[in-house]
């Protein structure tokens, strides 16, 4: 997805060149997701908040997985269409933990994109340290986003 076609929240600029993505009903629950262009690709970020605490001062794994799944779905979209994609398969391997206050960043790689499926993988990091790796498959729906949703 190109930076000019990203569904960003109007006027919401994050720290150090990060721009907040307009939240969906779901992402509004997990927290503000941001995007930045680095070396020509989108990098996505989210701050680990108190509400993400797994009772040990660390980010709950569900946050890491939901964040990765959400941004991989965003990246599956063709910026020239309003196609809707949904997750067919998603897997996540936790490598280390993230602490409350950490800023998580996900970099993505599109492995294959066909007419109906997109295969991707990603790496979630905190301050350069790998927190999780993930991979998945997204399927194009026959439905389209309404202009108001995009």
SSE order and pairing:
Blueprint: E1 8-13, E2 19-21, H1 27-30, E3 34-38, E4 41-47, H2 61-76, E5 83-94, E6 103-113, E7 117-126, E8 129-144
Antiparallel strand pairs: 1-2, 2-3, 3-4, 4-6, 5-8, 6-7, 7-8
What's this entry about, in short?
The chain has 150 residues and is mainly β. The chain contains 2 helices and 8 strands. It has helices at 27-30, 61-76; strands at 8-13, 19-21, 34-38, 41-47, 83-94, 103-113, 117-126, 129-144.
List keywords for this structure.
single chain, 150 residues, mainly beta, Thiol Ester Dehydrase, Chain A, 8-stranded antiparallel sheet, 2 helices, 8 strands, globular, disordered N terminus
Describe the structure in your own words.
With 150 residues, the protein is mainly beta. It has a single domain (3-149), classed as Thiol Ester Dehydrase, Chain A (Roll), CATH 3.10.129. 13% of the residues lie in helices and 47% in strands. The protein has helices spanning 27-30, 61-76; strands at residues 8-13, 19-21, 34-38, 41-47, 83-94, 103-113, 117-126, 129-144. The protein has an eight-stranded antiparallel sheet, covered by helices on one side. A hairpin with a 2-residue loop joins strand 3 (34-38) and strand 4. It is globular.
